[in-house]
């Protein structure tokens, strides 16, 4: 069964999972450790493999800044960050 991401993210089921993840994380960003109110934290999918049936380990709680960075967005300029291509060991 295919799950529509945009529809799912608006569902009561997802909101309950996100809330539980934030509670488990102690309302702290799991990247930088900042303590934030629930509404300023995001439950970030580490994988979409089990979308709709996520395991606890599929989610990471991030503050707005770390979540934007995770997606390669400059949180202040609201634009994608240009990252240099990753070199392989053979290229180094």
What does this structure look like?
This protein is α+β, with helices and mostly antiparallel strands and 92 residues long. Helices cover 27% and strands 15% of the residues. It is built from three helices and four strands. The strands form two sheets. A two-stranded antiparallel sheet has the order 1-2. A hairpin with a 4-residue loop joins strand 3 (73-74) and strand 4.
Which sequence of SSEs, written as H and E, runs from N to C?
A: HHEEHEE
Principal-axis shape? globular
- Report the span from N to C terminus: 43 Å
Can you count the helices?
A: 3
Structural class designation: alpha+beta
Q: Give the low-pLDDT segments.
A: none
Radius of gyration, in angstroms, nearest whole number: 15 Å
> Would you report the number of β strands?
4
Helical residue percent band: 25-40%
Mean pLDDT: 84
Q: What strand order characterises the main sheet?
A: 1-2
- What is the strand content? 15-25%
Classify the oligomer: single chain
């Amino acid at each position: 069964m295919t799950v529509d991401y945009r529809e799912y993210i608006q569902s009561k089921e997802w909101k309950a999972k996100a809330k539980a993840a934030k509670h488990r994380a102690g309302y702290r960003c799991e990247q930088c450790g900042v303590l934030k109110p629930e509404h300023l934290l995001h439950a970030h999918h580490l994988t979409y493999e089990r979308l709709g049936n996520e395991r606890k380990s599929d989610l990471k709680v991030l503050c707005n800044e770390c979540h934007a960075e995770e997606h390669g967005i400059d949180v202040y300029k609201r634009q994608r960050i240009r990252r240099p291509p990753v070199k392989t060991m053979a290229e180094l």
